[in-house]
Amino acid sequence: MDKVGHKTLLVVGGMPGTGTTTIISNLAVSIAKTDRSVLVIDANFRRPIIAGLYGVAESPGLGDVLCGEEKLENTIQQTIIPGIHVLAAGTNKYRIYERLGTESMASILAQLSSEYGTILIDSPAAVAAGDSQVLLDHVDASVLVVRALQEERGLVTRLIHQLRNGKADHLGIILNAARISAGGYFK
């Protein structure tokens, strides 16, 4: 991402339960340890859990800003982890996922890109909702998270094609919950 100047990364799970939010959390901590500011955005309006994970308030958040009910600067929250901030999903009645594809969303991401070193965006599983497809037009890059032995190869191939067809650069796949079948250090 650094080589080409990308700042916003959409992290998409293939199926529900792939561990996308855990991957985002680990990425955020790793990036913050390099003295870069990180913003984690919960764009999973259907099942938001970022706020609970970081121990911050669920609202106001992204949904409130997209509906014009709150100013962006009033919704960013500092976590207890230095360098990591959160933009939660927001108030339930303002979490209207159709607004993720609007120019307001693009404007929000453009503004935040000038303020943070890296922005990680959590979205619903691609199989469960098309929200990630809409967000692809507003982010710099995407990555697909798949859980070992859960997603079928055909599904993964289809999701890769969908991510590659968006405006964002598709960086690759993160394999979660891989199991080592052979023992020993060199096996």
If you had to describe this structure to a student in words, what would you say it looks like?
This protein is of the alpha/beta class and 187 residues long. It has helices at residues 20-32, 50-54, 62-66, 103-113, 131-135, 153-164, and strands spanning 8-13, 38-42, 76-78, 84-87, 118-122, 141-147, 169-176. The two termini are 32 Å apart. The model has no long low-confidence stretch (mean pLDDT 87).
**Percent in helix:** 25-40%
The strands making up the biggest β-sheet line up spatially as: 3-4-2-5-1-6-7
Q: What is the number of beta strands? A: 7
The unreliable regions are none
Calculate the mean pLDDT score and round it.
87
Amount of beta strand: 15-25%
Biggest sheet record: 7 strands, mixed
**SSE run:** EHEHHEEHEHEHE
Anisotropy-based shape: globular
Concise synopsis of the structure shown:
Helix content is about 25%, strand content about 20%. It is an alpha/beta fold and about 190 residues long.
